[in-house]
């Protein structure tokens, strides 16, 4: 990058916040996909006005801007595939305001999601979205991808809690969207348009977040099933019984075996499925609900139901679910992680299709995820050094998405599109949907400087 441009960026953000060495730029060149794209320069702004000035320079010079949080995404959304400026938002990490009376928080995008949750819970309030990387990922990154997590079945996803945003647009203007009230229908809903846009329309610099009361009690159960259809029937019966769990997690037989090899949690390897079910609310109702869930699972074919008696036992049950991702690293060096979502009653159908695809392409596929809302994390375990196997894996991904759409599902439940899924979105959106998306991008960013190559692989 030209020296005069480096000086301009340094004048805005300070020398210590403008990184140009090869080592520093490599640190911001990848995300959880393992793919890379090295930025020309890394800038870490402290305030929204600096973001605006940086974007004005990028617009004038035609330099790509790639907004970035912690880089935990699984779709390549924060990778600077065209170089340019990696705009790292992690230093804008303050809780600006916490209005307990109206149950609203104002927070900067670089605040770690877990830290934000801990702060609001001190006031007896609750921010439910809980992506797996919550102790590392940022709330701005969550908004950029509309992240979800296990609690989505009951509480919804990130977009359901964002009331308004401050956004720097591609020309450098500051846009305020949304409200700080429970209601507001003035004009188009630009807040929802921005949430999930993966930094392709602007840079989020502040978020107005809706909070809810913190539940007073939690109860957790783990149910083991010999047959996956019995697990699916249990899910349907639990929902039909008017119990809405706060989490309803699923692990298939391959995931169970993977966890057992990793931490020896005492899970039966011959089980086709395990459900981890959690309810929250007042003390009396959660006791009643978890007991009812235990009965439903037992009557539906569960060979074993464990109900945690205290926080220690609850943590032990969750440990098996949390161990899946690190355990996968022992199977193969490369993980292709997709997060398809189907109607919850079609979970057994997609699992069967995934097994057929695994056999057809001679690939090891491990499945787990959020069965309560039909969101399955499909993990193809391979080795990127094996070109022939990677070709088979790529073909398998296309067939997985085809099967998902045939079952009336979606190819991304919470990971976003980024670069890994952009060539498939036409299959879901159709020609008209793609064209409308392109028109929106052109209106906001006609020079295509804002995270180019993401969602839409071309304008």
Keywords:
459 residues; alpha+beta; Uridine Diphospho-n-acetylenolpyruvylglucosamine Reductase, domain 2; Uridine Diphospho-n-acetylenolpyruvylglucosamine Reductase, domain 3; Alpha-Beta Plaits; 4 domains; seven-stranded antiparallel beta sheet; 15 helices; 37% helix; globular
Description:
This protein has a 7-stranded antiparallel beta sheet with strand order 15-12-14-13-17-18-16, sandwiched between helices. It has a 5-stranded antiparallel beta sheet with strand order 5-6-10-8-9. Strands 1-2-4-3 form a 4-stranded mixed beta sheet. The chain is α+β, with helices and mostly antiparallel strands and 459 residues long. It has helices spanning 3-13, 22-27, 48-61, 113-121, 139-145, 152-155, 190-194, 228-240, 253-263, 283-299, 311-322, 324-328, 347-360, 387-406, 425-444; strands spanning 18-19, 41-43, 65-68, 85-88, 95-99, 104-107, 125-126, 162-168, 174-178, 203-210, 212-213, 217-225, 247-252, 273-281, 302-307, 334-341, 364-370, 375-382. The chain has 15 helices and 18 strands. A hairpin with a 5-residue loop joins strand 8 and strand 9 (174-178). It has 4 domains: 3-88, Uridine Diphospho-n-acetylenolpyruvylglucosamine Reductase, domain 2; 95-213, Uridine Diphospho-n-acetylenolpyruvylglucosamine Reductase, domain 3, CATH 3.30.465; 217-325, Alpha-Beta Plaits (2-Layer Sandwich); 331-406, Alpha-Beta Plaits, CATH 3.30.70.
